[in-house]
Design a protein that fits this description.
The complex is a heterodimer of chains A (790) and B (261). With 790 residues, chain A is an alpha+beta fold. Chain A has 20 helices and 28 strands. Chain A folds into three domains: 213 residues, Aldehyde Oxidoreductase, domain 3 (Alpha-Beta Complex); 326 residues, Aldehyde Oxidoreductase, domain 4 (2-Layer Sandwich); 153 residues, 2-Layer Sandwich (Aldehyde Oxidoreductase, domain 4), CATH 3.30.365. Helices cover 28% and strands 24% of the residues of chain A. In chain A, helix 14 packs parallel to helix 15 and helix 17 crosses helix 18. Chain A starts with 13 loop residues before the first helix and ends with a helix. Chain B has 261 residues and is of the alpha+beta class. Chain B folds into three domains: 44 residues, Uridine Diphospho-n-acetylenolpyruvylglucosamine Reductase, domain 2 (2-Layer Sandwich); 107 residues, Uridine Diphospho-n-acetylenolpyruvylglucosamine Reductase, domain 3 (2-Layer Sandwich); 92 residues, Enolase-like, domain 1 (2-Layer Sandwich). The model of chain B has no long low-confidence stretch (mean pLDDT 97). The chains are: A alpha+beta (790), B alpha+beta (261). At the A-B interface, helix 4 and helix 19 of A face helix 12 of B.
Chain lengths: 790, 261
């Protein structure tokens, strides 16, 4: 059988998705189903005086209305922060109460207050208009840089400061700066983004009173974690009687990690009324209430010596947590951010502070890249400025400061196992025809366009796990992953994974691994995920971890299958287990032509004694069946890296930026399916370009979200992109047997810096993200452009 | 969306009769339906006028181009008659929304809605259009009254839009990157005795720019625009563009239009 790993195999899941046969939560309809609609706050900040739902209760078709009082009465717990951060003074971060239905106050536009359950959706919406909420509207704050100066929005949280985090050696860093020959400074705004998964969030609660079983269908990236949190913290239902099903999930980008208020309330409402309750977010609800991403304000300084070597890095960031702290809200701008600020440079001293602040905005949390895009943006912007200020070539300055030897213990957290940074930069330089850039710049100038070039040589930490590390820095759970490989008697294989695809093509990638490992045809392998009643407990999919951690668990379970198979084959072939070789699906007795296929072994494991043989093929002490489970907890993160080179053309008259050339060379370690990886990189780059040029979650002075629809929130589109040239280098990861590093977020992590470095190169002066046409026009005008001023 | 009655009219007379109370006409529905889905608008009855014979189609004479009210943007964009007589109008129609919108949206619906950032109202003003209704003929100069407001009376139905064929014309749009409506769209039409210039997207309602018209009427060239001063007074401000930027874009788009005439 040809090698499956490394082959461009078309996605097994495409047939259903491309023919409209995907089955998402909204596609599920249950008998006697009811419909829910949420009453949300129109104010950024207000005290709730009274929620009067008496009129709504009498409206046609209404079954019940639940409010903050209902959930308090039934002791439903609030939403949690799953990863707590300790401030530099040793105190725990401060988390305000986060009720699933607000009772006393609302803190952002879209905050959930009540839910109406009715026979039809229209009736639920009509009745929701009759829920009369009396508010005492208060002043609000939305801007990241104003939060600490504003009055306390939550009782007992002074200066709206959740935590004041410090990472690094301040003394050593100050010393490096005091000795520096050159100090480079940048001020950076990392714009707030809205994830915009194609499938909006959705939930259906289905309580069965006779069996006391509660099923929640929900669009989640991690159904087991949802069940754990909802049973342990929200007290919705005991875990053993609670099933969570996440069928096909249409994108998440981190926004479907959290247990949301709607999940808890829909499950609770179904228990209360004894019928299925369905809720599907409208797009405007997604804009308002999905977790948002990024939203940092940063000042950074880089110290250099006279030899153009970086000697120190200082970063001070304010991160906007929004109105409450969600599950990964605090770790995202701290441990997922600060260690990554070092990039792939050999920096001996660094320190970073992060102030996590509350504001009257939608809560933020992990969004594709989660902390790493923010960090990469800081280091790649400041490195670019440094090269410019000392008059050195962008590539040369980077190479001079790259880490060259591995493993490399960075001065903050990470111990990077493998990499070759010169290799991917050299390849990218070649592929992008960097040496002829100045010719292209002149060609553009002839057309009246300003051309710029930008580099982003990124790295990131993927594969969260390892449990010992993450738990020591505040995670509430270890982040291993599970797999169960189950041979069926007829020789085909069901693989249960704790990872959960929300677009990552696990059905194909994992089947390729299992196919190679066990010698089973890919069409005879089924990857099962997204149902707590089917596979073992798993941690889900985020942080580019599914392959490095989940894939490895599958490999390990396959190893156990092979080990057991050898025992059975030995007995069947009259040999010893240690004399059995396994290759391409066959167990072969050494120095003989005797062999059994893995299908025959599986059959024998389930049906010993068939074929009229009274002697069981199973050796003594070997149980029937061929099912193996593995839980894999890696020893380290994995560290993908790569080089992006972007070229833009800026129209001086309008300020419009057009991407004209884009080159990516990534080192993802072992690539299982290049076709799928290309898709991940294209999509990732598009999302990163979206942040750099188009996307911006904007709140006005009164706290209204003014970018709450596709009329105003600019998503990147196909016509915004040139061809993206892709290539790879490979240094395998050493922390997992696959050698895989992770690819799901890389594009989004690297692209903003590459694009903005190109824009700033073209414009000749600083511009903050997103580099909208007007912003660029104003920068050009300020910089003395006659065309812009005309 | 709130429930409503759906009725199809066989002719304009029936349509008018049905359009009483909280009823409204439905042509392509590309603005009306989203507004209803968002509950920004609610009607007791929608009167489908797409089945009325004679409301759709394109007729061209030596002086004018007449487009039936329910003619879709895609039909206008693809029409050889339009392409020959007023190419800028084909281009404009081809740049409205996306393929789905162009295949459903109609010219009558667009101008009756009079969205401040829509494309067709600018064509009506620049191309000196006459709006034919079931009651009367209205000059485009009197038709567009304000934001989402026209001279149409309750129950009055647009039957056709008649454009005066210019010597040359062009439309230049700077689209909103999100919605792709015009942040600023400038429509320029040169006639024997005058040059008409309209601007959409920049203010609360499409308008004719007297400054640009007088500059271009005496000297139809890009350089004539350089000397024009466009005030940002009364121009829109939103998260996509300030009034100052819109004023600047009016000149840039006007130059683009004139240079492509």
């Amino acid at each position: 059988m040809a090698n499956l790993v490394g082959a461009k195999i078309e996605r097994k899941e495409d047939k259903k998705f491309l023919t409209g046969k995907g089955r998402y939560t909204a596609d599920i309809n249950l008998s006697k189903q009811t419909y829910a609609y949420f009453v949300r706050s129109p104010h950024a900040r207000a005290k709730i005086i009274k929620v009067d739902h008496s009129k709504a209760m009498k409206a046609p078709g209404v079954i019940d209305v639940f409010t903050g009082d209902s959930v308090v009465k039934d002791k439903i717990g609030g939403l949690i922060c799953g990863w707590k951060i300790v401030s530099q003074d040793g105190k725990d971060m401060k988390c305000p109460p986060h009720p699933v239905l607000a009772k006393d106050s609302v803190n952002f536009v879209g905050d959930h207050i009540a839910v109406v359950v009715a026979e039809t959706l229209e009736q639920a919406k009509n009745a929701a208009e009759l829920v009369n909420v009396s508010y005492k509207v208060q002043k609000s704050v939305t801007r990241t840089d104003e939060a600490t100066k504003f009055e306390n929005i939550h009782e007992g949280i002074d200066n709206n400061l959740s935590f004041d985090f410090l990472l690094g050696d301040k003394g050593k860093t100050d010393e490096a700066f005091s000795k520096a020959d050159k100090i480079v400074k940048v001020d950076i705004v990392n714009n707030r983004l809205i994830p915009n998964a194609m499938e909006p969030r959705a939930a259906i609660g289905d309580y069965n009173a006779s069996s006391d079983e509660l099923t929640l269908y929900t669009a989640s990236q991690n159904p087991h974690l949802d069940r754990l949190i909802m049973s342990a913290f929200n007290a919705v239902h005991p875990e053993h009687k609670f099933r969570i099903v996440s069928p096909d999930v249409g994108g998440g980008f981190g926004s479907k990690i959290n247990v949301y208020a709607e999940d808890v309330v829909i499950a609770y409402a179904s228990k209360k009324i004894g019928r299925p309750v369905k809720w599907v977010a409208e797009r405007s609800e997604s804009f308002m209430s999905d977790n948002h991403g990024r939203d940092h304000v940063t000042h950074a300084e880089l110290a250099l010596n006279s030899d153009s070597k970086i000697t120190g890095l200082k970063v001070d960031t304010i991160a906007n947590l929004g109105a409450y702290s969600l599950v990964l809200a605090a770790v995202t701008p701290t441990y997922l951010y600060a260690p990554l600020l070092l990039g792939i440079y050999d920096i001996p001293a660094a320190c970073c502070t992060v102030k996590g602040v509350y504001t009257n905005t939608a809560p933020t949390d992990a969004y594709r890249g989660a902390g790493r895009p923010e960090a990469t943006y800081v280091i790649e912007r400041i490195v670019t400025e440094a090269a410019k200020e000392i008059g050195m070539d962008q590539a040369e300055f980077r190479k001079k400061n790259f880490i060259k030897k591995f493993p490399h213990q960075q001065c903050l957290v990470h111990n990077i196992d493998s990499g070759d940074y010169d290799a991917h930069l050299d390849k990218a330089i070649e592929l992008s025809d960097y040496k002829n850039f100045e010719n292209r710049r002149s060609q553009s100038a002839k057309k009246g366009k300003l051309r710029g070039i930008g580099f982003s040589t990124y790295f990131e930490a993927c594969g969260v796990a390892p449990s010992a590390v993450v738990m020591s820095i505040g995670s509430g759970v270890g982040l291993w992953e599970s797999a169960e490989v189950r041979f069926n008697a007829t020789g085909n294989v069901s693989v249960f994974t704790g990872a959960h695809s929300h677009g990552q093509s696990h059905d194909t990638t994992f089947a390729q691994i299992v196919g190679d490992k066990l010698g089973v045809a890919i069409e005879n392998i089924d990857i099962v995920h997204g149902d707590t009643d089917k596979g073992p407990f798993g941690m889900g999919t985020y942080g580019s971890r599914s392959l490095a951690v989940g894939g490895t668990a599958i490999v390990k379970a396959c190893d156990k299958i092979i080990a057991k198979g050898k025992k059975v084959a030995a007995k069947m072939l009259d040999g010893k287990p240690e004399d059995i070789d396994f290759k391409a699906g066959e167990f072969i007795l050494k120095n003989s032509n005797k062999k059994k296929t893995i299908g025959e072994i599986a059959f024998a494991c389930y049906l010993p004694g068939t074929f009229g043989d009274v002697n069981s093929p199973l050796p003594e002490g070997v149980e029937p069946g061929l099912i193996e489970t593995s839980f894999f907890d890696p020893s380290n993160f994995s560290f993908p890296s790569g080089s992006h080179i972007c070229e833009v053309e800026v129209d001086e008259e309008t300020g419009e930026t057009k991407l004209v050339k884009y080159t990516v060379v990534d080192d993802f370690g072992t690539v299982i399916n290049p076709l799928i990886v290309e898709g991940q990189v294209y999509g990732g780059v598009a999302q990163g370009v979206g942040q750099a040029l188009y996307e911006n979650a904007h709140y006005d002075k009164s706290g209204q979200l003014t970018s709450a629809s596709y009329m105003d929130y600019t998503m990147p589109r196909a016509d915004n992109f040139p061809h993206i040239a892709l290539d790879y280098t490979c240094t395998p990861a050493t922390s997992n047997p696959l050698g895989a590093k992770g690819c799901g977020e890389a594009g989004t992590i690297a692209a903003p810096a590459a694009v903005m470095n190109a824009v700033i190169d073209a414009v000749g002066t600083d511009v903050q993200m997103p580099a909208t046409a007007e912003k660029v026009w104003k920068a050009l005008k300020k910089n003395g452009s006659k065309k812009a001023a005309a | 969306m709130k429930s409503f009655n759906f009725k199809s009219a066989a002719n304009t007379k029936e349509a008018t009769k049905l359009a009483s109370g909280r009823a409204t006409f439905l042509a392509g529905g590309m603005s009306l339906i989203p507004a209803m889905k968002l509950r920004l608008a609610a009607y007791s009855d929608l009167i489908n006028i797409k089945k009325i014979k004679g409301l759709s189609g394109i007729k061209v004479s030596s002086k004018s181009l007449k487009i039936g009210a329910t003619t879709t943007h895609a039909e206008v964009a693809a029409s050889k008659e339009v392409g020959k007589s007023i190419p800028s109008l084909s281009m404009l129609a081809d740049g409205i929304g996306d393929p789905q919108v162009r295949n459903r949206g109609t010219i009558g619906g667009s101008i009756a809605n009079n969205d401040p950032a829509a494309d067709y109202p600018s064509a009506c003003l620049a191309l000196n259009a006459t709006i034919h209704t079931n009651k009367r003929k209205i000059s485009s100069d009197k038709f567009f009254k304000g934001m989402f407001e026209t001279d149409l009376k309750k129950g009055e139905l647009i039957e056709a839009v008649e454009f005066e064929i210019p010597e040359k014309s062009a439309y230049a749009k700077y689209p909103n990157p999100a919605s792709r409506y015009a942040i600023v769209g400038v429509n320029v039409a040169k006639y024997k005795n005058e040059t008409r210039v309209s601007v959409t997207g920049a203010a609360s309602c499409v308008f004719r720019s007297k400054e640009l018209e007088s500059a271009l009427s005496s000297n139809f060239s890009v350089s004539a625009i350089d000397k024009v001063n466009i005030s940002d007074k009364n121009l829109n401000e939103d998260i996509h563009a300030s009034a100052e930027y819109r004023a600047h874009l009016i000149k840039v788009m006007a130059k683009k239009a004139v240079s492509s005439c």
